[in-house]
């Protein structure tokens, strides 16, 4: 018997997903500061939103108290603009003393005490993208050791202010340096995004050997347009990208922006469904202190999360693309699979009729489980 999962939805920019089951053997999940909070360092005028230890403590409290951690959202990731502009007297990176008076190690302890993990950010070049001290070749070992000493659990290595030759050396070197610390630290590489994301410049076999996840494409912004650009690029290049993904190595289409200002509820469901099908890391960048219950329930949807976290770790594909409708498919463990029906129509619902045999499912008996996006809009 096959166990298939079907999700039908005909709505505006709509989607759905369907079901099933799985350092980062499944895509990492958590929260990342960048898209929502950027490089806001004005703690005097914006104390609640500036990049400071308070922000990360607040998010850690929300993750552990509002049901996120139990669903798998365990990483709390610092992005750019956390550090002092100067290294310390021993040449080590240090947190900005005003905004992180307790220091990073103490923050890591706070998270660990709550069953959460801490991610931090650095850059392969002379400076980070925001102009803070970078981690060029000659600083790789000392910075990897510093992060390990602080008991950091994940490291994102950005690529501003470096060239291709330096990146070719730096990204593998950092992988070795992190390993040499003896502390398991998830490693997120921005390298391919700086090299256009495609072969021959990008070698996905190599990336899978040295990084746990990597950013293939440009930064997400808080808009539907941005989500669609990313989705289009990922599926146009699915023949290159899908074989690269698997347990411990993930393509990263960037953060979930659900709960911010740019997406409607339907668009939010669509991002969640497509990120689940893509086996994408699920890093939310939003304000968990003020998130709406609607956005929260999309991000906490158990079916979407279980599809995303399926232990086989196979990245889904677009199997059908017509003018208004696209169908995405992802094989899951236990003979299951997930389908997303995604309507691009924005003026009215799109009526679409299909069958499992039209979607090339072989004859047999299937158990079908529909994620009900809109009760009035589908029929199985
Ligand atoms: C990359 O930068 C280094 C300096 O860090 C320089 O020596 C090298 O020539 C540059 N390579 C290219 C291809 O620009
Ligand atoms: C370092 O790499 C070795 C060999 O690949 C591996 O067995 C070990 O678990 C790694 N250690 C850490 C801390 O990543
Ligand atoms: C890509 O990387 C792999 C593993 O490091 C290596 O064996 C292979 O030769 C590389 N391919 C190309 C085209 O450079
Ligand atoms: C999966 O489906 C195949 C083909 O129908 C069947 O032979 C196999 O027993 C199924 N496996 C499981 C775990 O259900
Ligand atoms: C189903 O298989 C046929 C024949 O191989 C192919 O032409 C068609 O594109 C496939 N359809 C889907 C939705 O995969």
SSE layout and pairings?
Layout: E1 2-3, E2 29-32, H1 34-37, H2 53-65, E3 75-77, H3 103-113, E4 117-123, H4 140-149, E5 154-158, H5 164-180, E6 186-189, H6 191-194, H7 204-210, E7 213-215, H8 224-236, H9 238-241, E8 250-252, H10 265-277, E9 282-284, H11 293-299, H12 302-308, E10 317-321, E11 325-331, E12 337-343, E13 366-367
Parallel strand pairs: 1-13, 2-3, 2-9, 3-4, 4-5, 5-6, 6-7, 7-8
Antiparallel strand pairs: 10-11, 11-12
Helix pairs in contact: 2-3, 4-5, 10-11, 10-12
Bound molecules: 2-acetamido-2-deoxy-beta-D-glucopyranose (5 copies).
Residues 203, 205-206, 209 line the site of one 2-acetamido-2-deoxy-beta-D-glucopyranose.
Structural account:
With 380 residues, the chain is α/β, with parallel strands linked by helices. It has one domain (18-310): Aldolase class I (TIM Barrel). 29% of the residues lie in helices and 14% in strands. The protein contains 12 helices and 13 strands. It has an 8-stranded parallel sheet. It has a 3-stranded antiparallel sheet with strand order 10-11-12, with helices on one face. Helix 2 (53-65) packs parallel to helix 3 (103-113), helix 4 (140-149) runs parallel beside helix 5 (164-180) and helix 10 packs parallel to helix 12. The chain is globular, with a radius of gyration of 21 Å. Bound molecules: 2-acetamido-2-deoxy-beta-D-glucopyranose (5 copies). Residues 163, 165-166 line the site of one 2-acetamido-2-deoxy-beta-D-glucopyranose (NAG). Its main location: other. One of its GO terms (cellular component) is lysosome. This is Alpha-galactosidase.
């Amino acid at each position: 018997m096959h166990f298939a999962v079907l999700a039908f939805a005909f709505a505006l920019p709509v989607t759905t997903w369907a079901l099933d089951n799985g350092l980062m053997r499944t895509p990492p999940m958590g929260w990342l500061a960048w898209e929502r909070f950027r490089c806001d360092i004005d703690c005097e005028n914006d104390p609640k939103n500036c990049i400071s230890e308070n922000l990360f403590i607040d998010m850690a409290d929300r993750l552990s108290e509002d049901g996120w951690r139990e669903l798998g959202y365990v990483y709390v990731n610092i992005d750019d603009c956390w550090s002092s502009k100067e290294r310390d007297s021993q040449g080590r990176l240090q947190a900005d003393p005003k905004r992180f008076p307790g220091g990073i190690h103490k923050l890591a302890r706070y998270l660990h005490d709550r069953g959460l993990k801490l991610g931090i950010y650095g850059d392969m070049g002379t400076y980070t993208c925001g102009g803070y001290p970078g981690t060029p070749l000659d600083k790789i070992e000392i910075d990897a050791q510093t992060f390990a000493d602080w008991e950091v659990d994940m490291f994102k290595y950005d690529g501003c202010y470096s060239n291709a030759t330096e990146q070719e050396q730096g990204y593998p070197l950092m992988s070795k340096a992190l390993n040499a610390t003896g502390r398991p630290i998830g490693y997120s590489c921005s390298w391919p995004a700086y090299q256009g994301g495609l072969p021959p410049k990008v070698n996905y076999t190599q990336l899978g050997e040295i990084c746990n996840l990597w950013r293939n494409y440009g930064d997400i912004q808080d808009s539907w347009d941005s989500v669609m650009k990313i989705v289009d690029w990922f599926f146009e290049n699915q023949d290159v990208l899908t074989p690269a993904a698997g347990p411990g190595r993930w393509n990263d289409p960037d953060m979930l922006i659900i709960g911010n200002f740019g997406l409607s509820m339907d668009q939010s469901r669509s991002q969640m469904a497509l990120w689940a099908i893509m086996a994408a890391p699920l890093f939310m960048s939003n304000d968990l202190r003020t998130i709406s219950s609607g956005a929260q329930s999309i991000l906490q949807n158990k079916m979407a999360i279980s599809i995303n976290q399926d232990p086989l770790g196979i990245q889904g594909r677009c199997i059908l693309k017509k003018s208004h409708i696209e169908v995405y498919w992802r094989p899951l463990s236990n003979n299951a699979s997930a389908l997303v029906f995604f309507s691009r129509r924005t003026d009215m619902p799109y009526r679409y009729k299909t069958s499992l045999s039209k979607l090339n499912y072989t004859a047999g008996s299937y158990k079908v489980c529909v994620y009900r996006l809109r009760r009035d809009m589908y029929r199985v």
